[in-house]
Amino acid sequence: MIWILVSVAAVLLLIYDRLKFRHWTKRGVPHLTPIPFFGHYHPVAFGLQPPGMFYDCHLQKHKDKKYFGVYEYHRPTLVLNDLDLVEHVLVKDFSSFANHPRWVIDESSYLNQMTLNLRGNLWRATRYRLTPSFTASKMQLALDRILRIASPNFQEGEFELQDKMSAIAADVIASYFGATIQNKDAFAQAMFEQTYTSPIRHVEYQFLEHFPKLAAWSGMSLFSKKIDKTMRETSRALLSGCGATSEFRSLIEGIKSDGVLRMKGKDFDINGNEEADHVFEATDELLLGQASQFLFAGLDATANTMGFLAYEIAANLDVQAKVRAEVTAALAKHGNQWSYEMLHELTYLQNCVQESMRIHSVKPFLFREATRDYTFPGTNLKIKTGEKVVIPAISFQMDPQHYPEPEKFKPERWSEDARPKSKFTWLPFGEGPRQCLGMRFSIMEMKLVLGKLLTEFEMTISPRTAMPAGHVTLGIVGRLDRPVYVRLNRLNSGKTS
Ligand code: HEM
């Protein structure tokens, strides 16, 4: 009896596969032959490849094509391999691709209402209100506060790079809320559990992203109840203001006292009545979502990016000497005062940030969901509302056509006369109206932390570290793939080279 049931189920699955896997063939979109149930996604499903590498592997087999299709289980995903098409999706025809598609964040998670996850007009209204968080004058105030309450302190000796950068990033983002994190141990533990991806967690992520109903039915969630509670409490405490005031909190308090987010039809990029008012209730959960977004992005994404940057600077002592010379000269020019303007002048350090992020993107691909049926310009390719489009950013960033010897860390390639022609070959923060809102903030933070460190110390990789380090992206954001120990020697102590 059991065999009959298994055989019937297998036959039904094969029929379902055949129906689903006709999608790209019917549209004339190139793709590799899918396998039953997994489509093309088995390397990701079994944890053998992170998604960024998965898209890149397919791209290498479609090098001469402007686009190609993959099946993530039964879900058809269009992958773009042409910078003009990328520009249409991210910028020129943004209103047809305004949403991020469904991914691992489940409805119970404290991250569910964060900006990245909001859709349609609610996203537009929220982003519109949050955008003033990062003007140049607010950056200066944030920098003053970082220097006052989260000044990165370094001491001579040896430490593990990623841990140190995570601790600094936590202090810095808390200072952005005008606060300090009180229970650092509980917080660090929650952060670790949040980002650690065991094989079981990996399977859960697969269910959450690709079979959300089944995941909800079986009680799976992105984070455990304990982590969810800690992170919600931390976000709430940061928002309720237990320390100095901050521009971000004032912004949120402004929204809270209005009770609503309000925008005119003409402020939205949609057709319709331009004078119509769009009003959304500013619920507690929505405000918590925004605080969580800033906290989450300010922690992992920034800490890991800073970890990669520090690693490259420690491993390339010639680059390190140039950064030090640049920072020392700028400090002398500005009366030994750190300021947003002074950081802006550190162009070589900026080049290092860009180069490190080109090689080690914590988010190696971008995604969008079609918000209306759309035909790609200059092609017969059509996409329907709700379908997913991927932009394989890391493939462009590591393409020798755009960046000769792409594996090499060469900040010089970002100098004025050498930089690549198209801005769509460098996408670590995304691009267009959904580009990362915290880009200025995190670049400022990285320049400040590394700049300060290098004026006082020489930083070298300890012999304890197995070199070279690479990156892993099996979890939500990429990070160094092993512990990296660095040694700091005070510059005037006579021990440095
Ligand atoms: C180095 C650190 C960071 C990296 C690499 C990074 C990267 C990204 C990327 C790739 C996106 C998606 C962009 C797109 O789809 O086009 C994004 C979105 C976002 N990021 Fe960041 N981020 C970082 C730090 C931050 C920080 C510190 C904040 C806030 C303080 C922040 C706030 C946001 C917000 C609000 C969004 C959602 C934008 C939207 O959907 O409208 N990020 N980030």
From TrEMBL:
Gene3D superfamilies: Cytochrome P450. Keywords: Endoplasmic reticulum, Heme, Iron, Membrane, Metal-binding, Microsome, Monooxygenase, Oxidoreductase. The keyword Membrane applies. CDD domains: CYP6-like. It comes from the Eukaryota. InterPro entries: Cyt_P450, Cyt_P450_CS, Cyt_P450_E_grp-IV, Cyt_P450_sf, Insect_CytP450_Detox. Its cofactor is heme. It is found in: Endoplasmic reticulum membrane; Microsome membrane. It is a peripheral membrane protein. The keyword Membrane applies. Its main location: endoplasmic reticulum. May be involved in the metabolism of insect hormones and in the breakdown of synthetic insecticides. Belongs to the cytochrome P450 family. This is Cytochrome P450.
